Amino acid sequence: MSTRVLLVDDQVVIRYGLRLVFEGEPDLQVVGEAVDGLDAVDAVARLRPDVVLMDVRMPRLDGLAALSRIVTSDSAARVVMLTTFDLDEYVFQALRGGACGFLLKDAPPEDMVSAVRLVAAGEALLAPSVTRRVITEFARTAVPADPDARHGRLTPRELDVLRLVARGLTNDEVAAELYVSRTTVKTHVARVLAKLGLRDRVQAVVYAHEHGLAGRSAQSTGC
């Protein structure tokens, strides 16, 4: 079954370019386009896309407000925000608001395709430069860890994995850092998400920085 994709951007040239990127992929289907946030909310309700690629800055209703309406609706659509600049001031708020990730508009076509497939499969993503921006912002506003918070349920190794994920490391990089296999890291990430009641990797980054965990040093010695 094809992944249904909705394209949301006020610039026709951007929508046209994105459509061209996905038209050649047999497992991806562009089911519609929207020119602003209001259009997007309506299109999500009508077309039931699996993934929404949505611009941040748009007339009438911006991407952040549209995201809020989509997330609080009965739609199962997963939203990836598109931005021209990795320093967009909406990044921080959108991740807290339920976006599954951010992607730069100048990303290579293969990265766009991979991103949609990952998000459709339940993963989350951030462009590396956007990850650095998010981490910088969280570090600036981080609060002391709450000893009664949910992360008290995590093992020392799971805390290590969470801390490294919050720094923007991929599973392969976490595996290299902790001298374990990639499969082991994936298992730890899944357990962290389950224990903390988080939807995806992006929410894990948010949680870690909100609870002052990202800067801690690894102390565990085993799995």
Automatic annotation (TrEMBL):
User: What CDD domains does UniProt report for this protein, alphabetically?
Assistant: LuxR_C_like, REC_NarL-like
Any one of the GO BP annotations: regulation of DNA-templated transcription
Report the residue ranges that make up the HTH luxR-type domain in this protein.
Answer: 147-212
Signal peptide location:
none
> What Pfam families does the record point to?
GerE, Response_reg
Listed name of the protein: Response regulator transcription factor
Give the UniProt keywords, A-Z: DNA-binding, Phosphoprotein, Transcription, Transcription regulation
Positions of modified residues (4-aspartylphosphate):
D55
Gene Ontology molecular function terms on file: DNA binding
Look up keyword Repeat and say if it applies: no
Which residues belong to any copy of the Response regulatory domain?
A: 4-120
PANTHER family in UniProt: TRANSCRIPTIONAL REGULATORY PROTEIN NARL-RELATED, TWO-COMPONENT RESPONSE REGULATOR
